């Protein structure tokens, strides 16, 4: 018996050592943790239960039959984050560069299947040289099976990818199909073809970081949601995010006790809107004053910053916030903002997270750059996302709600449940100046008349009462009571019942 146990321990130790001390040291020298060290940070202490520790590849080409390392380059299993179950896989770069063999893929698919069966999130820690070159098509098949599992899990259990090393070629498509991607600055990159191929094909000289590093993907491309300084920060951010998400699309939202009074009044909100309608203010401040303890987890803060998306809590329960940001491009809706918010709204709806929308939007961004890049289709994504969402939707118009953007931003007409406006709201087809220039074009050389008509237009439309008189706004509220109104609304909407007509799936404008 003791010999058997000793054998098990010997094998476990071999698995723990992965590709050996030299490669572990090399990993550390790059500022990276090992696959197992990362799981120690991600999961609650002693909660990790490993599966498939002894799995090995079955490749016999290129001398691989004599190179077998238990676990085959990925550590898989389950554990808890703040006591809540999650399934995990963590690629081990010290074993064949974390490259994906058929067996490695099967291990990932196994934890994904388990997660789906029991209703728990999947967190993937990616650090891999891509397809196991020695295995050829068997590895490609393995990737495709992971992709298939990602797609079936989408909208069923939350999926989070942390990119903590190389992620290149077709391998990028697994994280790309998960709900959120966090990247580590300077040590991770994602691209379909690397700098060498780029140089050969297009003659461009570019570094890995410039082509697909964390900063590029969180500012330019929006492939990734957050860029973190190092492994530990990324893993701690993953723990934080998980605190806002349900275990599955069938699970209750996680609640946290809070001491923040649900009816807390915030008098400073009564004066946050500047007297001049063209002056900005920081919508982050409004969010911070509304959510429990001012805690907000922002998604994609560096991309499309003219719209803010992220999670907060009200009365301890998670809420998705979407808010125009007057500080950036006057809060206008453009392609980036529309795509970013559309994906966020769809995530919230898939996982029954109520959506609070704060509106201060002057319209869609004009220009050939926007039109020729398809603002029509991209703007439609956000419209589509709000219109199909059946979760509780509470909207507060703080200032501008102009034109099509008024409709798009969770208006009453898109089944907004509670649509509030502050007294400073201006709900109109467009701003007074633009409107008067069009309606009174013939008087454009008469500044007095133009000024008079602008004033008349402002008096008539630069307020929430025309919309409120039609019932498009349910109530004009004191800004200081916003948190209380939202909290009450969410309580009342907790048992909201609304279903869309049966369909195989919709045809989102892509
Ligand atoms: C097998 C691999 C490997 C791979 C790395 N290794 N990538 N083994 N298959 N894909 C091994 C190396 O042989 C080495 O083994 C160890 O991992 C570490 O690699 P190094 O090159 O020493 O590390 P580093 O200098 O940090 O460079 C990392 C790297 C580089 C940039 C990832 O290894 C690399 O370019 N690898 C190949 C990447 C690639 O072309 N992959 C296929 C892409 S196509 P030893 O024993 O020396 O430690 C693809 C298609 C997916 O992925 C399609 C899905 C649909």
From TrEMBL:
The transmembrane segments are none
Q: Which SUPFAM superfamilies match?
A: ClpP/crotonase
Supply the source organism for this entry.
Aurantiacibacter sediminis
Q: Where is this region: Disordered?
A: 1-29
Per UniProt, residues of the CoA carboxyltransferase C-terminal domain are: 261-500
Q: What is this protein called?
A: Acyl-CoA carboxylase subunit beta
Segments forming domain CoA carboxyltransferase N-terminal:
1-257
Stored InterPro entries:
AccD/PCCB, AcCoA_carboxyl_beta, ClpP/crotonase-like_dom_sf, COA_CT_C, COA_CT_N
A single Pfam family, by name? Carboxyl_trans
